[in-house]
Amino acid sequence: MKYILVAASFLFFLGCKSGEPSQQTGLIDKSRFDTLIDGKNVALFTMINTNNLQVSVTNYGARVVSIGVPVGENKFVDVALGFRSIKDYLNSPDVYFGPCVGRVGNRIAKGKFFLDGKEYTLAVNNGPNHLHGGLKGLHKVVWDFVSGNDSTIVLRYLSPDMEEGYPGNLEITLTYSLSTDNTLSMEYEAVTDKPTPVNLTNHSYFNLSGKGSTTINNHILTINADDYTPVDSTLIPLGTIEPVEGTPFDFRKPKAIGTDLALENEQLRFGAGYDHNFALNKTAQETFTFAARVYSPESGVQMEIYTTGPGLQFYGGNFFTGEITGKDGEKVGYRCGIALEPQHFPDAPNQSSFESIILLPGQKYLSASKYTFSVNN
Q1: d(CA 207, CA 186)
Q2: What's the pLDDT at 26?
Q3: Pick from 240, 21, 58: which is nearest to 147 by CA?
Q4: Which entry of 163, 164, 187, 341 is annotated as an active-site residue?
Q5: The domain spanning residue 254 has which CATH number?
Q6: pLDDT digits (tens, 9 = 90+) for 66-82
Q7: Structural domain count, the chain
Q8: Domain of 231?
């Protein structure tokens, strides 16, 4: 497989003086995250740039807890759905609010794959399939805090051989960084001592209106993809890459997310809406590609995503039911959050037509994504 160059900000950080990021400032009370899980310390860390954009991250699941976008004097829109305490994360029936997911993000058909002539069996935790690394994937472990400051947080986790059924000891380093141009970068690095599949990504739910009870169907979305990967009824790709033209999956020009949801379409029916991988229009290997732009007419907040990866999973909050209570006591309702996950293609270990995600000893897995925020009133 191709291995992606990390952004220059990671190299810059290595020469910086390290220290803990802000823990007293931010939109979330850090004391509600101070605890022990599996005998390891959990904490909340906040990065703040000169524009007062604030990003809070916890090392439980290496997850994004909040992204406070300033929209006026002392006024913020928190565009990342989530909770105000570690207790709420532990009790949530949906475990994918903001974490790093893997070893393999997205689905693996029937929880099985062959590697070097051996069949590996993983947890089946999404209908008949394996999803986002399993029952206790990267989203449910405590990562080690390595270093950080107000613009950078470095976390590391050693996933032991056969954890969740995956071979090899996999050492992962995840670097969050916040720049002065309001860009949140996520840079992933991993090495292994045995061949193993790796597809790491972030699984934040966004609502750019800042309200988990407000639909995202009126958000204006653009996806830089001429093609997507159709799925079967269990959301496993069929192995083909097909054009979006003439389908509800054509987001090459900006349109409201809800525009085509009422159309009769088998793929929309299988996903109960949008829950599909888009094959991005890559301009070159090992470089950042514009992946998507989403805008809330209500708040004026816009987010652009750039990634080194080949794909983007778009999930439209189809399974939110209102049973989950968010940060401000609001019920996270049906289609009130959007996930846009830069990635390699789903079920790649079982799909010979997709780019391989097998990492070998002596190689280094490197990938990165950037999320840039602006306000356009």
Answers
A1: 19
A2: 60
A3: 21
A4: 341
A5: 2.70.98.10
A6: 999 999 888 999 999 99
A7: 1
A8: 8-375
